[in-house]
């Protein structure tokens, strides 16, 4: 009854997740134990591990997000470039920005100054749903701002403008991919009905859905749909924006002699998600990468998975419920 979930032979580092489907769905009292067999071994997972997307391109599993200044008093102009540079210096090769973050140009400068080859960095940007114009040209705007020839991934940031606009925007992105402006395309904050809409229109499905995802907010129906349809799930707010003072998390951190952030990042990776972490603090930018020399047990993964509060557990905007 087990099924290898990530069985692409090109999936680097022999990173396998075994998933056992439990039917009927576990009741509350048994959830913890049953989920212990939900996700299993990760052998060995490294900072360089990648995953092959439906587009045929590889994405590093761990990414650095640069959404500074949201809900936090940060000077985006001042922190964006040094943080991105520091991230590249310590080895991150996956940067997540967006037009809304107002730092595409600064990230572009950091990439150039880092000395890391363009082809060795996976770069994502996003167009907001209320963008005034076609998504085909939105990609040009991002490329120009960043001083790049192509993006690795371009996302529709949010699903908030209704079916007609969503499909129009999605078709624009598919065209942008077709002509090589971006290698892969995807969406963000899309719920199942938004993804179904693309499927019903007979259009190619996104390679990625980027959603808020951590133990308190696990978006299970969306994750199940994505898993069943070859859509990779990127996890934003993987460390709950630093609000990690849950006894299950802190006691596990103590037991492993680790930061709570390490526990949450391991949970995300071991569940097969692609976490995007943000920090302006050089010590944390480095420390957040030091997660490959320990592993959570299946039971620990289950204990964290049992913290799910659904939508109530969201810490960011999480606009998945719009029609
Ligand atoms: N698509 C979307 O709608 C969407 C929405 C939100 C986020 N995102 C993406 O996901 C990325 C990450 O999400 P996020 O920034 O909201 O949340 P997050 O990464 O869960 O949390 C970032 C916060 O945690 C702090 N932090 C970092 N490392 C820490 C550590 N080891 N211990 C304690 N605190 C630590 C940071 O402060 P310091 O700077 O002081 O370290 C920052 O305040 C964003 O940058 C963005 O790329 C996408």
UniProtKB/TrEMBL annotation:
Return the InterPro entries for the record: AKR, Aldo/ket_reductase_CS, NAD(P)_OxRdtase_dom_sf, NADP_OxRdtase_dom
Quote the protein name from its UniProt record: NADP-dependent oxidoreductase domain-containing protein
Q: Which UniProt keywords apply?
A: Oxidoreductase
- Extract the CDD domains matched here: AKR_AKR1-5-like
The record's Gene3D superfamilies line, in alphabetical order, gives: NADP-dependent oxidoreductase domain (3.20.20.100)
Q: Which residues form the NADP-dependent oxidoreductase domain?
A: 85-308
Asked whether the UniProt record includes Oxidoreductase among its keywords, one would answer: yes
Q: Binding residues for substrate, per the UniProt record?
A: 157
Molecular functions per Gene Ontology: oxidoreductase activity
Q: Where is this site: Lowers pKa of active site Tyr?
A: 126
Matches recorded under Pfam families: Aldo_ket_red
Cell cycle recorded as keyword: no
Organism, scientific name: Antrodiella citrinella
- Catalytic-site annotation from UniProt: 101 (proton donor)
- Entry similarity comment: Belongs to the aldo/keto reductase family.
